[in-house]
Design a protein that fits this description.
134 residues, mainly alpha, Multidrug-efflux Transporter Regulator, Chain: A, Domain 2, 6 helices, 7% strand
Length: 134
């Protein structure tokens, strides 16, 4: 199955401009063209775009994504370097997750505190919150 650029953009969640940009900076191979010269994307192209999107979501810099994209054309001979790129990125993701967990702990603490404040206020002034929501 093949897809025109608009459908590929829709299916990948990326904009048409982003697809063209990724092609220009060599993150993706130039897609095949139909008889009218329009880009045609395959399922394989969409799978690669999905992977690139995941890498971006992890915060991987475009520079590293480009290196990874170039290495993949070398096949198995570049597996070690590609693995190292992913191992390094995984470590960064785990660090960010730990930071986010610490932030979540602070938010949960503050929310619990405010819930207690509301309960205390309700005990001192019954009906205050009921009237406000009516």
């Amino acid at each position: 199955m093949t897809y025109a650029i608009a459908e590929a953009a829709h299916r990948s969640g990326l904009s048409i401009d982003t697809l063209r940009y990724y092609e220009r900076i060599e993150l993706i191979d130039p897609p095949a063209r139909d008889s009218g010269g329009r880009r045609v994307y395959t399922e394989t192209d969409l799978a690669w775009l999905g992977f690139l999107t995941r890498l971006r979501t992890t915060g991987m810099p475009i520079r590293m994504m480009r290196e990874y994209a170039k290495l993949r054309h070398q096949g198995v001979t570049s597996a070690g370097r590609r693995k190292q790129i992913l191992v390094t990125q995984r470590a960064e993701v785990l660090e960010r997750i730990a930071e986010l967990h610490a932030c979540l702990d602070v938010l949960n603490h503050k929310i619990t505190n405010y819930e207690q404040c509301e309960r205390d206020l309700e005990e001192r002034n019954p009906g205050v919150f009921a009237e406000a929501s009516a």
